[in-house]
TrEMBL record:
Annotated ATP binding sites: 3-7, 132-140
One example GO MF annotation: 5-formyltetrahydrofolate cyclo-ligase activity
Family: Belongs to the 5-formyltetrahydrofolate cyclo-ligase family.
Matching InterPro entries: FTHF_cligase, FTHF_cligase-like_sf, NagB/RpiA_transferase-like
Record-linked NCBIfam families: MTHFS_bact
Signal peptide feature range: none
EC number(s) stated in the UniProt entry for this protein: 6.3.3.2
Catalytic reactions of this protein: (6S)-5-formyl-5,6,7,8-tetrahydrofolate + ATP = (6R)-5,10-methenyltetrahydrofolate + ADP + phosphate
Binding site for substrate: 50, 55
Superkingdom: Bacteria
Co-factor requirement: Mg(2+)
Lineage per the UniProt record: Bacteria, Pseudomonadati, Bacteroidota, Flavobacteriia, Flavobacteriales
Protein name, entry field: 5-formyltetrahydrofolate cyclo-ligase
Enzyme class: ligase
Organism encoding this protein: Salegentibacter echinorum
Length: 189
């Protein structure tokens, strides 16, 4: 399927999920993440869920990272430049929703993409080759290109893989893993 068809399909599938189902599936995803070989790193980039888009609830993952005393990095959207700014989450970080309902830090300690070792990537769909589609603005692809070559990219999805996403561009950055409620997909093999 092409990207436009997949966006439509998966937005519809997500919108059909109840809040209770989202919580249940998000907890399963967080528990599956514990089986990945990524917990020795120090800097983890986490997206905060857009509840209105019925995204995977990353609050469970946030608690895991805090419990492991990891440095958690959040993004602030720079719409004008199609870029993300990266801010270290601290006890004094103020989170507010922007005009697109994306929860983001207002300000804080900047972190460079090269400092980040693991990135949890939002997505709508992914395929057997680790290619993903998001909302189509390229924020995460732009960000991931700025990271070091060893950064681990982990998608989070309520749904299993598609066979293939057509219309893959050279600017699309593939995932290393994608974690669902029932499976871990490893694209490094």
């Amino acid at each position: 399927m092409n990207k436009a068809e997949l966006r439509k399909k998966y937005k519809k599938l997500r919108l059909a999920l109840s809040e209770e189902k989202i919580e249940e599936l998000s907890l399963k995803i967080a528990n599956n993440l514990l089986n990945l070989p990524v917990w020795e790193a120090s800097f983890y980039h986490l997206f905060l869920s857009i509840a209105e888009q019925k995204e995977v609830n990353t609050e469970f993952l946030l608690h895991i990272l805090q419990g492991k005393d990891k440095n958690i990095v959040l993004s602030k959207t720079d719409i004008k430049n199609n870029q993300l700014e990266h801010i270290l989450l601290t006890d004094s970080t103020v989170i507010r929703k922007n005009r697109w309902n994306i929860p983001e830090p207002e300000a804080g300690i900047p972190i460079t993409p090269q400092q980040i070792e693991v990135v949890f990537v939002p997505l709508l769909a992914f395929d057997e080759n680790g290619h993903r589609i998001g909302y189509g603005k390229g924020f995460y692809d732009n960000f991931l290109k700025e990271c070091n070559d060893n950064v681990v990219k982990i998608g989070l999805s309520f749904f299993n893989t598609e066979i293939e996403i057509t219309e893959i561009f050279s600017s699309d950055v593939p995932l290393d893993y994608c974690v669902t409620p029932t499976k871990i997909y490893d694209f490094n093999k």
